[in-house]
Structure formats: C-alpha cells, structure tokens
Design brief:
Elements (H helix, E strand, L loop, with lengths): L5 E4 L3 E5 L5 E6 L2 E4 L4 E4 L3 H18 L6 E6 L2 E5 L2 E12 L2 H7 L6 E11 L8 E2 L1 H6 L5 H23 L3 E13 L2 E4 L8 E5 L9 H4 L5 H12 L5
Helix pairs in contact: 1-6
Bound molecules: cytidine-5'-monophosphate.
Pfam family, one: SAICAR_synt
Enzyme class: ligase
Organism: Psychrobacter alimentarius
C-alpha cells in the first residue's frame, strides 16, 4: 500500500490517503508537542517507538474484542488504518488524579479515583481542548447519545484491559485519552495509544514514564517510553 495525498498533518502524525478509499496511512513523526502545539521539539526515535507501541496495544485491544482502526504495521514509523469519520471529542479515563484534574480541583497528585472517572474534552487546540459533556456533544451534533454511550463503554473496557497489562510490568496506568470515529455506522477506536496520550508511573517509585517527562522538562523522555515498552513486551526492533 502506497502513500498518496497528504490529508492532514497533526502535531505528531501525518495522515495520507491510499488507493483504497477506506484505508489511510499514519506516519508517526519525531515531533513532540506540549501546550496545545505551542512548544514543539524533535525527539530522536519517537516516531518508531510510538508506532511500535501503538501497534502492540491495538493488537492487545483487538484480542480483547475491542474494534480498532488498526490494520497493519507498514514500516518502522507507518501504520495502515481504516478511514474513520472522527468524532471531535477526547475521551479520558482517570484511575488516579493528575494533570488538568489536579489543577482544576486542587487535588493531590496520585489520589486514587474509585471508581475511575470519565471526562470528555472538545478537540480544539485554539480553544485549549476545553472540557465538555455528553449533553453538549449531542446538542452540537458531534455525536448521538448512543454513540457517546458506546464510546464511554469502550473507554472503560480499554481501561480494564490496559490496567492489567501495565500492572504486569509493575506499572500504574494513571490516566489516558482515546479518540473514536465512525466506520460504516460502528464506533471504532482511532488515533493512537502511546505514552504521548497516557500517564504511566513506576508502581514502586512513582517515577513518571510518559509525556509528562516532556511537559515538565524532566529529561530522558524516549528512554522512559522504551522502558515502558520493554516492561510490557513491545518488540522495539
Ligand atoms: O491534561 P489532562 O490531565 O486532562 O490529560 C489526561 C490524559 O489525556 C493524559 O494521559 C494526557 O496525556 C492525555 N491527553 C492527550 N491529549 C490531549 C489532552 C490530554 O493525550 N490533548
């Protein structure tokens, strides 16, 4: 499958059309962004690490019966995916308090959230991805009530599968973000799952092993991604 027209250039991935109207190619770049794209740096190996990480996770989710857009890994930094009609909402599950939740409510980082909480954010860099809810998402016709219910159900299923996977590597899945789209009337998981879009801590030391290392300028960003990959069995070469 060959790359054709560039369809969209995101902050970390470029999306290309293919000769098949139902399929797209995602190219994982080394670009790393924070502050809604206002800070961008190149981190060597990131595209390759995230592509391999994502392929491994998408396969695990498929094995658990969760439909994803993943078709096959094409190269070190490219993947073939189904073309979804994306819903402009980010679905976040939090097992422990961190990030924007801590800032919003003044909570202590690491406070357990039992049961895990679920939040929606409108995907819009210019607006800083503001928090929204299901009611607004229906009123603004981003998705139907049924679609939003399915997204929530699937996001919690992903949490169950991945919490166990990371736990086996002595890692804590703190929180993560998913994006969904519609493929022939079905809600299907799209975008990516990599340390760019989740928080992962070492179970014992609570060391941050995700994109917070970049956001907070802690250093060794890709080394941390590789450590997580090694601990959960992602083949990196
Ligand atoms: O920033 P916040 O605490 O709301 O992020 C929750 C989770 O969603 C984190 O794992 C973060 O990496 C992810 N996220 C993301 N893309 C965004 C916003 C948040 O992947 N635009």
């Amino acid at each position: 499958m060959q790359k054709q027209q560039l369809l969209y250039k995101g902050k970390a991935k470029s999306v290309y059309e293919t000769e098949d109207n139902d399929l797209l190619i995602l190219h994982f770049r080394d670009d790393t962004s924070a502050l809604d794209g206002k800070r961008i740096e190149q981190l060597a190996r990131k595209g390759v690490v995230n592509n391999r990480f994502n392929a491994f996770i998408m396969q695990k989710l498929a094995d658990a019966g969760i439909e994803t857009h993943f078709e096959k890994q094409l190269s070190d930094d490219e993947v073939l995916v189904k073309r979804l009609d994306m819903i402009p909402v980010e679905c976040v599950v939090r097992n422990f308090a961190a990030g924007s939740l801590v800032r919003r409510l003044g909570l202590e980082e690491g406070q357990a959230l039992t049961p895990p909480t679920y939040e929606l954010f409108y995907k819009d860099d210019a607006l800083g991805d503001p928090m929204v809810n299901e009611s607004l998402s229906v009123s603004l016709e981003w998705a139907t009530e049924e679609q939003l219910a399915r997204m929530k159900e699937l996001t919690y299923q992903v949490n169950d599968v991945l919490k166990a996977l990371f736990e086996a590597g002595d890692l804590i899945l703190v929180d993560f973000k998913l994006e969904f789209g519609v493929f022939h009337d079905r809600i299907v998981l799209g975008d990516e799952f990599s340390p760019d879009g989740c928080r992962i801590w070492d179970k014992t030391t609570k060391k941050k092993l995700d994109k917070d290392r970049f956001r907070q300028s802690l250093g060794d960003v890709i080394e941390a991604y590789e450590e997580v990959a090694n601990r959960i069995g992602v083949p990196l070469s």
